[in-house]
Protein: GDP-mannose 4,6-dehydratase
Amino acid sequence: MESNTRKTALITGVTGQDGAYLAEFLLKKGYIVHGLKRRSSLFNTDRIDHLYQDPHLDNRNFILHYGDLTDATNLIRVIQQVQPDEIYNLAAQSHVKVSFDTPEYTANADGIGALRILEAVRLLGLTEKTRVYQASTSELYGLVQQVPQSETTPFYPRSPYAVAKMYGYWITVNYREAYNMFACNGILFNHESPVRGETFVTRKITRAVAKIALGLQHKLYLGNLSAQRDWGHAKDYVEAMWLILQQEKPEDFVIATGVTTTVRDFVRLSFGELGIEVEFSGQGENEKGVIIDRDEERLQLLNIDPERIKLGQTVVKVDSSYFRPTEVDLLIGDPSKAQRQLGWKPKYTLETLVSEMVLSDLHLMHKEQYLKEGGFDVLNYFE
Ligand code: NDP
Ligand code: GDR
Structure:
């Protein structure tokens, strides 16, 4: 892109999983990317540190602004300053289980936050210039009405998170219809990556599998093992976000792989990636996963001591404190509209996703093991 035709994008939630992949994607496309980040008592920019540019340099194409979706005046100021061609509203309290503990905050950030962005664009007279992407979610489908879920499937949200996102979905549709704004929902099904937050189930599993293999952890405690999710890779999904805003007409799209898997099978696949076979037995809270076989050649290839992998060892147990007051049992998306209209197709399969996540966590845990064995694992400032 020539510098005078370069587009400008503003990403809220730039420090999150999707924000980081999207920033990288847009920078490669030649955009000037602005990101909204929250003030935190610790550095929270790990995922975008590789994109960081010294603020003292001229001609930066990646610029961060402090801000929060609960602060309208701040959003208005940043949007006025940036004058974006595209806004990707990815910021959210995105953890479904946590939303039961912080329902009001979740409604404020995830629901009213979307309104604040749209209203800022309107108040600043940018409705013709600025296109808005709203991060909607398969959690909107909630209690199963029909499968696979498509753009026409009715919503039945099952958590404060999903209810807040339902407001975000409809206010986006409403601003599109009322003010002729180019505002779109991407209804994205679960998508993961090596930089997925550590408390979402996939990353919790892949981290634990790597730790167990290296003797840094003994057991993995999980909640509902029978939940089924349509898991894709975040890298594929941020491309879909961009495609949605490049269309001639603003519309909403389901983005999914069309394949669903249980949490239990995700665990099996993850251990399998390292050459460890786990079998499940028992039911409900008594279900457990036990090591029944090991592939010594694979383990050695990955620098894992096969002697650490004990046949008969229980490595997965159920902890009911991870159950949700209301659960979403089955998600499987129908991405045919996106395939047809956007030409979008995921490049990753579940197997390549799991492999990338497990090997990345194994790499991290090898470093942790090295530090621990060298006596550098705990720096206690408060002794
Ligand atoms: P993450 O939880 O990884 O990232 C969320 C981002 O939002 C972080 O940058 C976080 O900042 C920021 N944030 C949270 N609250 C606020 C706030 N009040 N003001 C400003 N920023 C805030 O989520 P993902 O990247 O996985 O998801 C991106 C979006 O897509 C979210 O809206 C999520 O709900 C939605 N979504 C995600 C799906 C998925 O499977 N990943 C599927 C469908 C929708 P900090 O880093 O400081 O915490
Ligand atoms: P989800 O993702 O709720 O689908 O929301 P999460 O990975 O948290 O849960 C998926 C399923 O796994 C079950 N589960 C567990 N979940 C967690 N977190 N921890 C556990 O120990 C555990 N054990 C079983 C859950 O009950 C659930 O059924 C994600 C988020 O990214 C949302 O922001 C996004 O909108 C949706 O995906 C699509």
